[in-house]
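Can't paste images in this forum, so I'm doing it all in text. The chain is below; anyone willing to post the predicted structure tokens underneath?
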Amino acid sequence: MIRVPDGFAAYAGRGPQWADFVDSVPRLAAELVDRWELRIDGEPRHGYCAVVVPVRTTDGEAAVLKMHVPDEASEHEHVALRLWDGRGAVRLLRADPTRSALLLERLSFRSLRSLPVLEACEVIAQGYGRLHVPAPGRLRTLTSSVERWTAELDELPRDVPVPRRLVEQAASVGRDLVADAAAEGVVVHGDLHDENVLAAQREPWLVIDPQPTSGDPHYEPAPVLWNRWDEALTAHDLRAHLRARFFTLVDVAGLDEDRAKAWVLVRMVHQAVWAIQDVARVRRGRAPLGSRGLSDDDRSWITRCITVVKAVQD
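Text version of the structure:
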């Protein structure tokens, strides 16, 4: 039985689903190790949503057993990884989708954060084309999600701590994108940033942790802008720094600038609103949706989202 890392065990406080998952991890790992004939080969590690256990297969291959909290965003991770078949991404060895468990080739734990930020942007942008392959029909469409999120924007009270101009603009642009046939049809990673690209042996860098949809390649840049925020804040000119990241991605990948800006607007406004909605869910309706109850971290995140939007706009 593995020991759940303390940091991940603390996630049980996120709610009943998380508590159940954290409690199930040791038992699930033991069952999969037995069924897939694996040997544990190191201490478990964790990210925000998953535990990974270093293992060896029967032929001695180094691998990791990944157990992810069940969620909609990562439900088709195995589909994308199987489709990519190791081309630019970690190779999938086995999968148990019903239990959100994967057996993956083992990579280094060194991420693109080890490179200067604009060099990392170039690596990410160069990898977009390898991942953006025709999407199979079983993937959830990006447009269906954006349509739902846009309807939520229309219902927001006016006192939420996000500029009303941006909320209305994101709703309008979101509807235009949903109506555009080019907004779906290719596999989009969905969460591609520096920490989701790891050093490897068979290729210099490989992508991990997709949240795949059938979507638009221009949806991808936003996570690169909101990550490595500590470095952004120490830049001489925050806006210029974020724009340098954005235009490196757009130019190297050959993306349409205006379309990429539109998706950054939509994504970042939704990200800010979700932080507010999460607080409202914790309060369970004891107070209306608004600015009350937001922690300093919540407000900092909302400010970050707004800053990213304004940085890429002319």
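The radius of gyration is 20 Å. The chain has a mean pLDDT of 93.
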